[in-house]
């Protein structure tokens, strides 16, 4: 999996309770415009790829979301989810490079951002191709408390 880059405001949203990693609904969107970790804070700051051919504006919902300590007393907390994907249908999907995660539950601010994956170059899915984000054993991101 590409490295997960956290948006700066993600820490504030965790601390003030806007984002609840235990119970909120999280989604992922595709973009071909570089996010800015220091200044982007809600989904409205992100330029999504064009709707259609297998992509729906607003992205996909993450399933099997967990926020758990990796081992009793370890002080390492992992945010994870099941792998998720997009499949091009009706033609090639628009080019994308970034997968941006956001919290779809809060209403003020609406859709706060968590972070993004940068795949290094633009990707285009031809008709019937599937792109899967493999979360891996370490989850999406971790918080270490010492």
Can you put this structure into words, describing what you see?
By secondary structure, this protein is mostly beta strands. It has one domain. Helix content is 5%, strand content 35%. Strands 1-8-7-2-3 form a five-stranded antiparallel sheet. Strands 4-5-10 form a three-stranded antiparallel sheet, with no helix packed on it. The mean pLDDT is 96.
Largest sheet properties: 5 strands, antiparallel
Structural class: mainly beta
Give the uncertain stretches in residue-range form: none
General form: globular
Number of domains: 1
The residue fraction in helices comes out at: under 10%
**Number of DSSP helical runs:** 1
Query: Distance between termini?
Result: 26 Å
The gyration radius over C-alpha positions equals 15 Å
Strand content: 25-35%
Nearest-integer average pLDDT: 96
Order of helices and strands: EHEEEEEEEEE
Give the tally of β-strands. Answer: 10
> Looking across the biggest beta sheet, what order are the strands in?
1-8-7-2-3
Brief rundown of the structure:
The protein has 146 residues and is mostly beta strands. It has 1 helix and 10 strands, in the order βαβββββββββ.
Labels describing this entry:
146 residues, mainly beta, 5% helix, three-stranded antiparallel sheet
